[in-house]
Amino acid sequence: MDNASIAHEHVNGSFELHVISTGDGDRVSFVQAAKVVWPWVDYIHIREKHLSWQNRIYWAESLRSVGVQACRIVINGCELPSQSRTYGGVHWGQEAMRDYNMEAVNNIQQQRLGVSVHSMDEARVAEDRGAHYLFYGHVFATGSKPDAEPRGLDALAEVCSGVSIPVIAIGGIQPENICAIRSSGAKGAAVISNVWTADSPEQAAASLRKAIIDSVRWRG
């Protein structure tokens, strides 16, 4: 299947593909890669913990300047864009759970809100407090956490069955394991290095999209 055919079959929402910035602070390279990657993915996350919130907004506007749709941009951090700026949502780590009433924020801001979790307990708390989706991992071995044992497909399946909101698998995701995480109940996959450090980020993203399309056909 060629890239044009893959793009034609890309249906947002059936199984989400998230790509997350590396955190290295290289805005220029990130924006250049995102320009060719974004048609293949559902969401691009700006996850640059060292940057101020205003600088993360600047990165988001840089993505928009090269054609990335605002609805595909997610900003990771403990604040929220003003109501005058509409992006694809915000994503929080566990530290934000201590500082915000998520349900109240959802009602006021109408922003899609994701939360990273690492256990069933964290998943249930995030769901109870109003998260729209969860990142769970790391599922497979990953170079970003070489000394941490992967949680595996059984744990992923347990979390997926234990909450009613979508669970996005993260950690060591490759095209060849898309079917496995989908069979475990995940509603999407999130990647970092698989795309951004590839020789061709566009081809890496297209390969993941093709694997997602193939997994739909395989299931049936």
Q: What features would you describe in this structure?
A:
- The protein has 220 residues and is of the alpha/beta class.
- The chain has helices at 3-8, 27-37, 53-65, 94-97, 102-109, 120-128, 152-162, 178-183, 193-196, 201-219; strands spanning 16-20, 43-46, 73-76, 89-92, 113-117, 133-137, 167-170, 188-191.
- It has an 8-stranded parallel β-barrel with strand order 1-2-3-4-5-6-7-8.
- Helix 2 (27-37) packs across helix 10.
- It is globular.
Q: What's this, in brief?
A:
The protein has helices at 3-8, 27-37, 53-65, 94-97, 102-109, 120-128, 152-162, 178-183, 193-196, 201-219, and strands spanning 16-20, 43-46, 73-76, 89-92, 113-117, 133-137, 167-170, 188-191. By secondary structure, the chain is an alpha/beta fold.
Helix share, percent? 40-55%
Question: What Rg, in angstroms, do the CA atoms define?
Answer: 16 Å
Q: What is the count of β-strands? A: 8
- Which strand order do you get reading across the main beta sheet? 1-2-3-4-5-6-7-8
**What coarse outline follows from CA principal-axis ratios?**
globular
Largest sheet: 8 strands, parallel, barrel
Point out poorly predicted stretches.
Answer: 1-13
Count of separate DSSP helical elements: 10
